[in-house]
Amino acid sequence: MEERVYNFSAGPSVLPLEVLEQAQKDLVCYPGAGCSVMEMSHRTKSFENIIFPARDTLRRIMNIPDDYEVLFLQGGASMQFAQFPMNLAHQGDTLDYAVTGQFAGNAFKEGKHWGKAVCVASSEYKVFSYIPRITEDMLDSDARFLHITGNNTIFGTAYHELPQTGSVPLVADWSSGILGMNIDVSKHALIYAGVQKNMGPAGMAVVIVKKDAILEDIDDVVPTMLRYKTMIDKDSMFNTPPCWTIYMCGLVFDWVERNGGVAAMEKRNREKSAVLYDLIDSSEIFNNPVVKKDRSIMNVTFTLPTDEDTKAFLAMATGRGLINVKGHRLVGGCRASIYNGMPMAGVEKLAECMRDFEKGMRE
Amino acid sequence: MEERVYNFSAGPSVLPLEVLEQAQKDLVCYPGAGCSVMEMSHRTKSFENIIFPARDTLRRIMNIPDDYEVLFLQGGASMQFAQFPMNLAHQGDTLDYAVTGQFAGNAFKEGKHWGKAVCVASSEYKVFSYIPRITEDMLDSDARFLHITGNNTIFGTAYHELPQTGSVPLVADWSSGILGMNIDVSKHALIYAGVQKNMGPAGMAVVIVKKDAILEDIDDVVPTMLRYKTMIDKDSMFNTPPCWTIYMCGLVFDWVERNGGVAAMEKRNREKSAVLYDLIDSSEIFNNPVVKKDRSIMNVTFTLPTDEDTKAFLAMATGRGLINVKGHRLVGGCRASIYNGMPMAGVEKLAECMRDFEKGMRE
Questions:
Q1: Which of A221, A336, B236, B356 keeps 20 to 30 A from A34, CA to CA?
Q2: Chain B contact for A252, CB < 8 A?
Q3: Could you tell me the CA-to-CA distances from A152 to A162, B40, B254 in Å, in that order?
């Protein structure tokens, strides 16, 4: 086998090696099924024994209350930008958004296709370097929800405390935080997350929705496939689900549970991010512009003095098998995404590379 | 490794063994990438070297004209039921449908959420046992399209000749026919297909759309993610695509090309289906109710005299490692789905089982 690198991609991103090895072993012939999971009819006991335990494990590790449904849906978080408003609001209703980055902005823009979308808070004027404090009085009293992006991958920020929304339901995109940090599901009306960061391979979103948050009298124009009720009634199998993706996510959920659950993941991610933030804060060339209390523990962003320095550093990192450290094409700089699948050894190798680069610059 | 069975599932369904073995070999570490395809950022050269050749190979093997776009989209064919009307028609427009089975009916019902959906032909009163002949004069002159389901998996029928639609654009769901039989793309405004039958693992649809068939002034309520233009402009990568599914489909496309292309696939599927239809037609206990000229070469349906006989036959088949021969839950009976991945050896084993069962009944 070729050598594996340390992959700091923001998503799709690194998966636990033992999960990949398990999937490889069973790929051609899943035990007891006589075929690959990729060939398995979703209407069989074999597949029910994959999808239902996966859902149950996710319920356990996220401590999801009984009055919430868990759905496995296609289209990723970007599809949810359109889908959750259709299920929680009528066309033309008031929808509140906090804009804390690129994807939060995309969700806000998508809301305008459905309702009267209002931006109630934004950190754009400070280049999204902090999380605005949101209180109930800032929200529209008739808003169907307040939408936030829990962890902002591009700018490296996160809500470490949820907004106070009073009677306005809270909807959150937790794509890059889910399973990597503790999230109190009961404080949300709806959580969604693309799976390709902390949960599995790309091609699915997990939606966790409080049953009574969904409109009873949904607008007629909403496609059957975009109605949560369609999928709730059919256990996410109204049509053929992305079976292999669900299987892989199930393996990851098991791995999280086996390794101490989400609390243990958060502890590890805090330790990993601290290694990098401590280095950056004591460095003379690396800089992180984020307000300290709002720093993400999943995506550590940092800059160097010049674009030339950035290029040289990225080349050095790649040469050492540390890939995808380049910042998002919209902001430049560097970014290390250190989701659950990234071991401390990878972070330490990156830190070593950063120290060596700084030393080299001083010489 | 455990023994593989012959899997006659209608979808997800059997994949070529050598494709599975290739995927298994490279699962943990894709050559040259240092990581799994499941961990690969879609914004890398490594992934571009997967998605673009996959698309190009599909263009070659289906002989897709240059004025058509090829898209890889999430949500399967069921999502397309809502998506193609939104891209080809304004809300309230007239939409024509031919109803030749369950999924054709689902597409028709979904059309009602968007426009004035009209059923211009149906074979329901004869339990969908034939394909109605459709001519231009049967269509609404202001219809935005006529929608057909090219191959009907549940009832085992197929259009071996396309309807005459004159100036009305033809839209077809070819989920269970694509790559298994010759399809003249140039006669369609749009073709879509869930990939989980003849192309790869579940979790994606391929959409082949004539560029000038798409509305310029699409209705504002249509979500960004459901606009074909969004995905055309970004080479199917507006958001994170289902990377692994695309990779697997690419391996299957290569396999089809290596094995003589779609013409060779159709020849093999005709031979395979002939083995079963010939047996059924000369049998005293097996029956296929479909009008001969409309028989599918992908899904061979058959019944036995009683439910008890059906149960006994299915048990015998399963015992011989021939699985998922049970008919769709809506119609009962038996069904052998013999897509490209099913070798003649599997079909012959099924035929042998059928002959043995009939012999046993006579004794």
A1: B356
A2: no
A3: 14, 20, 39
| CATH classification number, A6-10+261-359, choose in 3.90.950.20, 3.40.50.12280, 3.90.1150.10, 3.90.226.10 | 3.90.1150.10
Size of interface A-B (CB pairs under 8 A): 237
Amino acid present at A145: F
Pairing of β B170-173 and β B146-149: parallel
Per DSSP, helices labelled H in A192-282 are 228-233, 243-258, 261-281
Percent of chain A with pLDDT strictly greater than 90: 97
Chain A residues inside the 8 Å CB shell of B31: 2
Which residue do the tokens 């902090």 mark? Answer: A130
Q: CB of B4 within 8 A of CB of A25?
A: no
- Asked whether the predicted pLDDT for residue A158 surpasses 70, the reply is yes
Could A28 and B4 be called an inter-chain contact, meaning their C-beta atoms sit closer than 8 Å?
Answer: yes
Closest listed residue to residue B16, CA positions, set B270, B182, B196, B200: B200
- The yes-or-no verdict on residue A75 having pLDDT over 70 is yes
User: Across the interface, which of B17, B78, B244 has its CB nearest the CB of A203?
Assistant: B244
Cα gap B9→B13, rounded to integer Å: 5
Instruction: Mutate one of A14, A39, A51, A84 to test the B interface: name it (highest B CB count within 10 A).
Output: A39
B319 in reach of chain A (CB within 8 A): no
Mutate to test the interface with B, among A1, A2, A19 (most CBs of B within 10 A): A2
A11 touches chain B (CB under 8 A): yes
Nearest CA in chain B to A107: B224
Nearest residue in A to B240, CA atom? A202
Does residue B118 sit at the A interface (CB-CB below 8 Å)? no
Q: Which CATH architecture has domain B17-258?
A: 3-Layer(aba) Sandwich (3.40)
Strand partners, A95: A117
B64-86 exposure pattern, b = at least 16 Cβ within 10 A, e = fewer: beeebbbbbbbbbbbbbbbbbbb
Q: What are phi and psi of A70, to 5 degrees?
A: -115, 120
CB B179 within 8 A of CB B353: no
Q: Which amino acid is at A183?
A: I
Distances (CA, A) of B146 to A104, B170, B171, B207: 39, 5, 6, 16
Instruction: Tell me the pairing of strands B146-149 and B94-99.
Output: parallel
In which band, very low, low, confident or very high, does the pLDDT at A330 lie, cut at 50, 70 and 90? Answer: confident
Of residues A315, A93, A313, A62, the one with CA closest to residue A182:
A62
Is B238 in the A-facing interface, judged by CB distances under 8 Å? Answer: yes
Q: What is the pLDDT of residues B38-59, one digit of tens each?
A: 999 999 999 999 999 999 999 9
Whether residue A224 and residue B324 make contact (CB cut-off 8 A), yes or no, is: no
Chain A, nearest residue to B236 by Cα: A75
Q: Does B7 touch chain A (CB under 8 A)?
A: yes
Domain extents in chain A: 6-10+261-359, 17-258
Residue partners of B128: CB distance under 8 A and separation at least 6: B100, B101, B152, B154, B155, B157
Which candidate, A114, A130, A327, A131, places its Cα nearest to that of A223? Answer: A114
Of B113, B240, B324, the CB nearest to A223: B113
Q: What are the tens digits of pLDDT across the range B71-129? A: 999 999 999 999 999 999 999 999 999 999 999 999 999 999 999 999 999 999 999 99
Neighboring chain A residues of B29 at a CB cutoff of 8 Å: 1-4
Q: Output the pLDDT for position B296.
A: 98
* Residues on chain A touching B329 (C-beta within 8 angstroms): 43
Our CA angle for A63, A68, A72, nearest 5°, is: 90
Token digits of residue B327: 């008919």
Residue A331's pLDDT band, with cuts at 50, 70 and 90, is confident
